[in-house]
Design a protein that fits this description.
The structure holds 2 protein chains of 2 kinds.
Chain A (H helix, E strand, L loop, with lengths): L1 H13 L3 H10 L4 H17 L3 H16 L8 H8 L4 H14 L7 H12 L4 H14 L2 H14 L5 H17 L4 H10 L6 H17 L8 H10 L3 H14 L4 H17 L3 H20 L8 H12 L3 H17 L1 H5 L2 H7 L5 H14 L5 H14 L3 H20 L5 H11 L8 H14 L4 H13 L1 H6 L8 H12 L7 H8 L9 H22 L6 H18 L4 H22 L5 H6 L12 H4 L18 H5 L8 H15 L1 H17 L3 E3 L10 H4 L16 H29 L30 E3 L45 H6 L12 H15 L17 E4 L9 E6 L4 H21 L21 E10 L4 E9 L5 E3 L11 E2 L9 E10 L6 E12 L4 E12 L5 E2 L5 H9 L4 E7 L6 H12 L2 E6 L2 E8 L4 E9 L2 E8 L2 H17 L1
Antiparallel strand pairs in A: 1-2, 3-11, 4-5, 5-9, 6-8, 6-10, 7-9, 10-11, 12-15, 13-17, 14-15, 15-16, 16-17
Helix pairs in contact in A: 2-3, 3-4, 4-5, 4-6, 5-6, 6-8, 7-8, 7-9, 8-10, 9-10, 10-12, 12-14, 13-14, 14-16, 15-16, 16-18, 17-18, 18-21, 20-21, 21-23, 22-23, 24-25, 24-26, 24-39, 25-28, 26-28, 28-30, 29-30, 30-31, 30-32, 31-32
Chain B lengths: L2 E6 L4 E6 L5 H16 L8 E4 L2 E8 L2 E7 L5 H19 L4 H6 L1 H11 E2 L2 E2 L4 H22 L1
Classes of the chains: A alpha+beta, B alpha+beta.
Family (chain A): Belongs to the adaptor complexes large subunit family.
Membrane topology (chain A): Peripheral membrane protein
Subcellular location (chain A): Cytoplasm; Golgi apparatus membrane
C-alpha cells in the first residue's frame, strides 16, 4: 500500500498538471485540436489509475477542457469518484467539475445521492459548503426529493456559513421538488429573523423569488416585510424587499398606497442608483395598479422627474434604464410622459444605438392623432441620415408600427400614410420590403376610400420598375412591386390610364423580378386586361381593345419560357385565353363581361388567428401523417417564397383538400353565410362622415410623371402634412361657427392653428380627412372564443403555487428516505416506513394534465407486468379503447416460471381493472441475468395486441445508461432502435428477446425506452409511440442457487462477508408464505429452517454470495444479512422491504 | 441570475457559470451567440441588452468581458454591482488581477465566485467574509495536501 502511494506520487511528478495543460494549449495555437486530443488520451490513462490525486488532477484538467468546448461527459463517473474522495482538495475539484458539466440528463447523478448526503452532514463546514454549492448547479428532481430533508435540517445549522447556503439552495430544491415547499416554509420564515445578516438576506432573497412567481400566497407576510423595509439599511436586502412588494401590490391595492410614502422617502434619500431605480420601478408598478382600480391619487410626477434626471445623465446605462422605466409609465400615464417628448426625440440622436431603439419604443406609445404626423416626419429625417442598415431598418419598422398600431387608430389622413410608404420604398438595401408591401395591401384593401389614391400611386411605382429592380442585390424592396401590381390589378377601376399600366406591367425587365412577383404581375395584367375590355365595351372604337390584346400576345411568350413554374403556368394559361379572346374580337363578339367575370368578387382580409380558431372536428387528428412521411429533399425547392397570407393560403389549399374535403366545404359555407350577414364594415367614428370630398380635391397631377427615375413622394407627404393642418384649421373654424350659432355655453378652445402649437385641441376633435372604413378581418363563424392562447402550461413556477398557511398533512411531510445500507444502520427506527407517498399527488396531476392535452389523440396502448419478470410501465393511460399488452419474460428457468405464472398474472389483471398504470414501477417484478455470462441480461417481452387494428413496423429502443446497454447488431449506432421481427394482427401475441449488457450489478437500474409502431386501421394508419421503463432490480441479478448447510456455515465464517440487518414490522403473513415470497420474488433458496427461523442463500450472476437469516416473532421480521458486496446487499434488502410494505 | 460568462476580447471563454441546467450543446450555442453580440457592441454603448427573453448585463474590465444574464424583473444596476464586486474580490485575492491569473487559476476563480454567489443569488455581500471563507478553505487544502505528500 505504502509502495503504491509512493509510486503514485512519483508518477504525479511526470504528469501534466493544470498549469502545464494551459501553457500547452496556449503554445499550440495552430494545432490546438490535435494537442488537446493527445492530452485527452493522457487524461484517460490517468483516470485508469488508482491514485485519487492523479484522478483529481485529470478531472481538473478536464474541467478546463470543458470550458474550451470539449465534451467530457464520458468522464462523468470519474468525476463522481473524485467527488467522493475524503480529502477536501479533491472533493472540491470533483464538485467543481460536476457543477460545470452535470445536467438533468446526466445519469450518474443518481449515484451521487448518498455521497452528497454524507458530505452535507460532514463535520467540516467547507465539505458541506462545497456540496451545497455543487448541488445548486446540478440538482435534479430526484436529488431534490431525496435531499430536501437534509438541506432543511442544515437551515438550522450552528454555523451561519452553512445556514446561508442552505437557505439559498432551498429555492432550487423548491423548483425541482415543489412538494417540499410547504413543509420547509415555516423554517424558511424563521430565517427572516436570523441573527446573521447574511442568512437573513438569503431568506429574503428566496422568499422574494418565490413571491414573484406566486404572489398571492405571500400576502400574509406583507407586514413582516414592511417592518424589515423600514428598518433595514442593507441596499441588497432593500432591493429584494421592494421587488417583493412590487409583486404583491397588484393583489392588494391598499398596500400600494401605504408603500408610496416610504418609497418616496427612499427615492429622496438614497444615493445608490440601483435602489433608486428599483423604487421608481415599484412606484410605477403601484400606480399601474391604482389606475386599474380608479383610485390613483396622482400621476407619478416624482418618478417622471427622477427619470428625466436619469435620462439627462451622461452615463449611458442610466439613460437607457431611464427610458426603459419611462416606457412603463407610458402605459398608464401617457399624458405625464408626453410632455417629455422633446427629451425622447433628443435621445434619437444619441450615439448609442440601444438608447436610440429604446427612445423609438417610447415614441411608439407617445403618438396621438395630433402629433403622429409630426413625429413620423422627424423619424423620416432620421431615416435619411441614419448610417448602418440595421438601425435604419429598425426605424422603418417602427414608423410602420407607429402608424398601423391599433388598427390605424392615429391616422387621420391616409393619403399622407400612403405617401410615407411610397417614400420608404426609396430606402436602399432594406430588408423590410415585404413589410411595406403588406402595409400597402392592407391599407388599400381595408380603407375603401383610399383605393383611388393608392392605385394612382402604385401605378407610378410600377412605372418606375427600372429604379426598383436595378437597385442592388437587396431584392427585398421589390416586394413592394408585388403589392403595387396587385393593387393596380384588383382595383383597376380607379386607374387613369389602364393601358399604360398594362404596358408597364409587361415590360421585359419584369422578367428579372423574383418568381412570385412575376406571377402576380401576370395575373394582374390579366385583370387589367379584363378591365380595359370592360371599359371599352359599347364604344365604337375597338382599336384599344385590339391593341391591348396584341400587347399581351406579344409580351407574354417571354414569361411562358420562365423557369419559375408558377409564372410559366399562369403566363401560358393567360396567353391562350387572350388568343381566344382575340379571335372572338375579330368576329366582333362582345366578351368584356365574360372576361371580367373571371375576376369577380371581393377579397376580404382574414384575421391572423382565424385558422387557429376553427374548432377541430371530432375524429380528425392533425398530427397524423396522411401518407408515409416524404423524404426531406423533395420539399425543399417547392417552398413558396411569398410572404403574404393570401398567397400562402392559395398555396396551401391543395393540401387542405387532401386533409378533409368536408371540413373545407363547411368552412366555405360558413364564410358565405357570413358574407351574407355582411358584418365586415365598421365605421370608424360617427363624426367622420363630414369631408368625403377630400380625395377629389387633392391635386394628384402634381406628381411628376415625366421624370422617370425619381419616385415621387418626398414632396407629397410634406404636402399632405400641410394640407392636413389646413384642413384641421378649417374644420375647427367651421365648428366654431356652428357652435356660435347654436350659442352653446361650452367654452370654445380656439384653434389658432400653427403646426406646433395646436396643443389645446383634444383628441376627439380631430376628424379623419375622409370616410375611413377600416374593414375588419374575417373570423370563422364558430370560432372558439378562448383568449388563453398565450398561457404556457409548462411554466416551471406553477407547481410552487401552493397555500402556505394551510397546516401540513402527514402525507406532505418530507420523505426521510433511507435507501442505502449505511443509512439503514443509522436509523433503524425508520425501517418499514419507507414511503413514497409525497410523490403521488404530483404525478397524478401531471398525468391528468397530460391526459387533457392528449385528449384528441387516440389512446392506444397499455402495458402491464405479468409473470413477475421484468417490469415495464407506461406513461400513457388507456381507457379501454385499444389495448396492447406487453409482457416480459425471462429466458432462464422456464419451468419455474410456469409454476409461478398464475400469481403474476393476477397481478397484471389488477392493473387491467384500473385501466391505468402508475409511472412508478410496480414493486413485485424482477428480472434474471444470464448465468452463462455474468454481464448479460436477457429480456423477453411478449407483445399482445389488444386493439382492433393491425400493428406493424414495431421498433424497440432503450436509452442506454452508462451501466446498462441494449445490445444492438454490429454497425448500428448507439441510439438506433431494434426492429421487432414480427407484425401483430388484432388479438395476437408474440414474444421477442432483447439482450442487455450490464457492467455493475450492485445498483438497481431504471432504463427508459420507447416502442414505436404503426397502427393500421381500415382506411388510415398512424404512427404511435409508447414510453416505458425497464426496472432492473438488484434481485433480478440474483440466481436461485441451492446451497448445503455446511457450505453455508463456512461462508458465514469467512471474513469476506459484510453484514447488515433490517427489521420489518407488522407482517401478518404466515412464516412459510413469507419465505416463499422472498424466494419467489428475490430468487433465494432456503438452506435450513428451524421453527420461525430460516437461513436463505442466493448468488448473483457475477458470483456474489448473499446469505440471509430470517427470524419471525410477533409480526416482526428481522433479517440479518451478509454479502461480499455491501451496496448490492443493501439494495436487495431495500427491495425485500418494499415487497412487504406493499403487500 | 441565469448564468455568468467571462470572455476575452478575442472571444475566448475564460469562465462560465450556469445556474440553470442546460445541455452542453445549448450552453455552447448561447455562449457563441452572446460573445458575438457583446463583442460587436461599441465601447460607448450602454451595458444592457435584451436577448431572447433575458436581459444581458455586461461590463468590460481591461481585456476581459464579464457578462451576466438576468431575468426580466431583475435589477440591472445591482447586477452591474455584482460584477464589480466579483472583480474586486478577484483583485483582492490575486493582488491586482490580470487575465492570466484567471486563465491559470481558473478553479480558484470559480471557488471565489461560488463563495460570492450561490444558485445565481448573491449569498455574501461582505467582501471580507468571502475572502475569509476562501482563505480558510485554501488553508484546509494546503494542510491536507502537505500531509498527503
Amino acid at each position: 500500500m505504502a509502495l503504491k502511494m509512493v509510486k503514485g506520487s512519483i508518477d504525479r511528478i511526470f504528469d501534466k498538471n493544470l498549469q502545464d495543460l494551459v501553457r500547452g494549449v496556449r503554445s499550440h495555437r495552430e494545432d490546438e485540436a490535435k494537442y488537446i486530443s493527445s492530452c485527452i488520451d493522457e487524461i484517460k490513462q490517468e483516470l485508469k489509475q488508482d491514485n485519487i490525486a492523479v484522478k483529481a488532477n485529470a478531472v481538473c484538467k478536464l474541467t478546463y477542457l470543458q470550458m474550451l468546448g470539449y465534451d467530457i461527459s464520458w468522464a462523468a463517473f470519474n468525476i463522481v469518484e473524485v467527488m467522493s474522495s475524503s480529502k477536501f482538495t479533491y472533493k472540491r475539484i470533483g464538485y467543481l467539475a460536476a457543477s460545470q458539466c452535470f445536467h438533468d440528463g446526466t445519469d450518474v447523478i443518481m449515484l451521487t445521492t448518498n455521497q452528497i448526503r454524507k458530505d452535507l452532514s460532514s463535520p467540516n463546514q467547507y465539505d458541506t459548503g462545497v456540496a451545497l454549492t455543487g448541488l445548486s448547479c446540478f440538482v435534479t428532481p430526484d436529488l431534490a426529493r431525496d435531499l430536501a430533508n437534509d438541506i432543511m435540517t442544515l437551515m438550522s445549522h450552528t454555523k451561519p456559513y452553512i445556514r446561508k447556503k442552505a437557505v439559498l439552495i432551498m429555492y432550487k430544491v423548491f423548483l425541482k421538488y415543489p412538494e417540499s415547499l410547504r413543509p420547509a416554509f415555516p423554517r424558511l420564515k424563521e430565517k427572516l429573523d436570523d441573527p446573521d445578516p447574511g442568512v437573513q438576506s438569503a431568506a429574503v432573497n428566496v422568499i422574494c423569488e418565490l413571491a414573484r412567481r406566486n404572489p398571492r400566497n405571500y400576502l400574509s407576510l406583507a407586514p413582516l416585510f414592511f417592518k424589515l423595509m423600514t428598518s433595514s439599511t442593507n441596499n441588497w436586502v432593500l432591493i429584494k424587499i421592494i421587488k417583493l412588494f412590487g409583486a404583491l401590490t397588484p393583489l392588494e391595492p391598499r398596500l400600494g398606497k401605504k408603500l408610496i410614502e416610504p418609497l418616496t422617502n427612499l427615492i429622496h434619500s438614497t444615493s445608490a442608483m440601483s435602489l433608486l431605480y428599483e423604487c421608481v420601478n415599484t412606484v410605477i408598478a403601484d400606480c399601474c395598479v391604482c389606475v386599474k382600480t380608479d383610485t390613483c391619487p396622482r400621476p407619478p410626477q416624482l418618478c417622471v422627474q427622477k427619470l428625466r434626471i436619469l435620462i439627462e445623465d451622461s452615463d449611458q446605462n442610466l439613460k437607457y434604464l431611464g427610458l426603459l422605466a419611462m416606457s412603463k409609465i407610458l402605459k398608464t400615464h401617457p399624458k405625464s410622459v408626453q410632455s417629455h417628448k422633446d427629451l425622447v426625440l433628443q435621445c434619437l440622436d444619441d450615439k448609442d444605438e440601444s438608447i436610440r431603439l429604446r427612445a423609438l419604443d417610447l415614441l411608439y406609445g407617445m403618438v396621438s392623432k395630433k402629433n403622429l404626423m409630426e413625429i413620423v416626419k422627424k423619424l423620416m429625417v432620421h431615416v435619411d441620415k441614419a448610417e448602418g442598415t440595421t438601425y435604419r431598418d429598425e426605424l422603418l419598422t417602427k414608423i410602420i408600427d407607429i402608424c398601423s398600431q391599433s388598427n390605424y387608430q392615429y391616422i387621420t389622413n391616409f393619403e399622407w400614410y400612403i405617401s410615407i410608404l411610397v417614400e420608404l420604398t426609396r430606402l436602399e438595401g432594406t430588408r423590410h420590403g415585404h413589410l411595406i408591401a403588406s402595409q400597402m395591401l392592407d391599407v388599400a384593401v381595408r380603407v375603401k376610400a383610399i383605393r383611388g389614391f393608392a392605385v394612382v400611386q402604385m401605378a407610378t411605382l410600377l412605372d418606375n420598375t427600372t429604379l426598383l429592380a436595378g437597385s442592388g442585390q437587396h431584392k427585398s424592396i421589390c416586394e413592394v412591386l408585388y403589392a403595387a401590381a396587385w393593387i393596380c390589378g384588383e382595383f383597376s377601376e380607379h386607374l387613369e390610364d389602364p393601358v399604360h399600366t398594362l404596358e408597364a406591367m409587361l415590360r421585359p425587365k419584369v422578367a428579372t423580378l423574383p418568381g412570385h412577383i412575376q406571377a402576380i404581375y401576370i395575373q394582374n395584367a390579366a385583370k387589367l386586361f379584363a378591365a380595359v375590355l370592360n371599359g371599352q365595351q359599347g364604344t365604337p372604337d375597338c382599336q384599344t381593345m385590339q391593341e391591348s390584346s396584341q400587347l399581351l400576345i406579344d409580351r407574354l411568350p417571354l414569361f411562358v419560357q420562365s423557369a419559375d413554374l408558377e409564372v410559366q403556368e399562369r403566363a401560358s394559361c393567360i396567353l391562350q385565353l387572350v388568343k381566344f379572346i382575340q379571335k372572338l374580337q375579330h368576329k366582333e363578339v362582345e366578351v368584356g363581361e365574360e372576361v371580367t367575370a373571371l375576376f369577380a368578387g371581393e377579397l376580404n382580409p382574414v384575421a391572423p388567428k382565424a385558422q387557429k380558431k376553427v374548432p377541430v372536428p371530432d375524429g380528425l387528428d392533425l398530427d397524423a401523417w396522411i401518407n408515409e412521411p416524404p423524404s426531406e429533399s423533395e420539399s425543399e425547392d417547392e417552398k413558396p417564397v411569398a410572404v403574404f397570407a393570401e398567397e400562402e393560403l392559395r398555396h396551401a389549399r391543395p393540401h387542405h383538400t387532401e386533409v378533409d374535403e368536408k371540413e373545407l366545404a363547411r368552412r366555405r359555407e360558413a364564410r358565405k353565410q357570413e358574407q351574407a350577414n355582411n358584418p365586415f364594415y365598421i365605421k370608424a367614428s360617427p363624426t367622420s362622415q363630414k369631408d368625403s370630398t377630400g380625395v377629389e380635391h387633392i391635386p394628384v397631377v402634381q406628381i411628376d410623371l415625366s421624370v422617370p427615375l425619381k419616385v415621387p413622394g418626398m414632396s407629397t407627404s410634406d404636402k399632405y402634412l400641410k394640407l392636413e393642418e389646413e384642413r384641421r384649421q378649417r374644420e375647427r373654424k367651421e365648428r366654431g361657427k356652428k357652435e356660435k350659432k347654436k350659442k352653446k355655453k361650452r367654452e370654445k378652445r380656439s384653434g389658432m392653428g400653427r403646426r406646433h402649437d395646436s396643443g389645446p385641441e383634444s383628441e376627439e376633435d380631430i376628424a379623419p380627412a375622409h370616410m375611413v372604413d377600416i374593414v375588419t378581418e374575417e373570423m370563422p363563424e364558430n370560432a372558439l372564443s378562448s383568449d388563453d392562447d398565450e398561457k404556457d402550461p409548462n411554466d416551471p413556477y406553477r407547481a410552487l403555487d401552493v397555500d402556505l398557511d394551510k397546516p401540513l398533512a402527514d402525507s406532505e411531510k418530507l420523505p426521510v428516505r433511507a435507501h442505502r445500507p449505511t443509512n439503514i444502520l443509522k436509523s433503524p427506527a425508520d425501517d418499514g416506513e419507507v414511503q413514497e407517498v409525497p410523490k403521488e399527488p404530483k404525478k397524478k396531476s401531471k398525468k391528468e394534465k397530460r391526459d387533457k392535452e392528449e385528449e384528441r389523440k387516440v389512446r392506444l396502448l397499455w402495458l402491464r407486468c405479468p409473470n413477475g419478470e421484468i417490469q415495464c410501465t407506461c406513461t400513457k393511460s388507456s381507457k379501454h379503447k385499444k389495448k396492447k399488452q406487453k409482457k416480459d419474460k425471462e429466458k432462464e428457468e422456464k419451468k419455474r416460471k410456469k409454476q409461478h405464472g398464475h400469481s403474476g398474472d393476477r397481478e397484471g389483471e389488477e392493473s387491467v381493472q384500473n385501466g391505468t398504470l402508475e409511472e412508478e414501477p410496480l414493486p413485485v417484478c424482477d428480472i434474471q441475468g444470464n448465468l452463462q455470462n455474468g454481464s448479460q441480461v436477457v429480456v423477453s417481452i411478449i407483445f399482445e395486441n389488444k386493439s382492433t387494428s393491425f400493428l406493424k413496423s414495431m421498433e424497440f429502443n432503450v436509452l442506454d445508461s452508462l451501466n446498462s446497454k441494449l445490445q444492438r447488431p454490429e454497425g448500428s449506432g448507439p441510439h438506433d432502435g431494434l426492429t421487432v421481427p414480427f407484425q401483430l394482427p388484432p388479438g395476437v401475441s408474440n414474444e421477442a428477446r432483447f439482450i442487455f449488457s450490464v457492467q455493475s450489478i450492485v445498483m438497481p437500474q431504471r432504463l427508459k425506452g420507447t416502442l414505436t409502431f404503426i397502427v393500421k386501421a381500415d382506411d388510415s394508419s398512424t404512427h404511435e409511440k409508447l414510453d416505458f421503463k425497464l426496472h432492473f432490480t438488484c434481485s433480478s441479478y440474483l440466481i436461485t442457487t441451492p446451497c448445503y448447510s455446511d457450505t453455508f456455515a463456512k461462508l458465514l465464517e469467512s471474513a469476506d462477508l459484510k453484514g447488515t440487518s433490517v427489521r420489518l414490522q407488522e407482517v401478518s403473513l404466515p412464516f412459510h408464505h413469507l419465505l416463499a415470497k422472498i424466494c419467489f420474488h428475490h430468487h433465494f433458496s432456503v438452506v435450513e429452517r428451524i421453527d420461525s427461523c430460516a437461513s436463505l442463500y442466493s448468488r448473483s450472476i457475477q458470483g456474489h454470495h448473499v446469505c440471509l437469516l430470517v427470524k419471525y416473532a410477533h409480526q416482526t421480521v428481522t433479517i440479518d444479512a451478509k454479502c461480499d458486496e455491501s451496496s448490492l446487499l443493501g439494495n436487495v434488502l431495500e427491495e425485500i422491504k418494499k415487497t412487504f410494505s406493499q403487500s | 441570475m441565469q448564468f455568468m460568462l467571462l470572455f476575452s476580447r478575442q472571444g475566448k471563454l475564460r469562465l462560465q457559470k450556469w445556474y440553470v441546467p442546460l445541455s452542453d450543446k445549448e450552453k455552447k450555442k448561447i455562449t457563441r451567440e452572446l460573445v458575438q453580440t457583446v463583442l460587436a457592441r461599441k465601447p460607448k454603448m450602454c451595458s444592457f441588452l435584451e436577448w431572447r427573453d433575458l436581459k444581458i448585463v455586461y461590463k468590460r474590465y481591461a481585456s476581459l468581458y464579464f457578462c451576466c444574464a438576468i431575468e426580466d424583473q431583475d435589477n440591472e444596476l445591482i447586477t452591474l454591482e455584482i460584477i464589480h464586486r466579483y472583480v474586486e474580490l478577484l483583485d483582492k485575492y490575486f493582488g491586482s488581477v490580470c487575465e492570466l491569473d484567471i486563465i491559470f487559476n481558473f478553479e480558484k476563480a470559480y471557488f471565489i465566485l461560488d463563495e460570492f454567489l450561490l444558485g445565481g443569488e448573491a449569498q455574501e455581500t461582505s467582501k471580507k467574509n468571502v475572502l475569509k471563507a476562501i482563505e480558510q478553505a485554501d488553508l484546509l487544502q494546503e494542510v491536507r495536501h502537505n500531509y498527503f505528500l
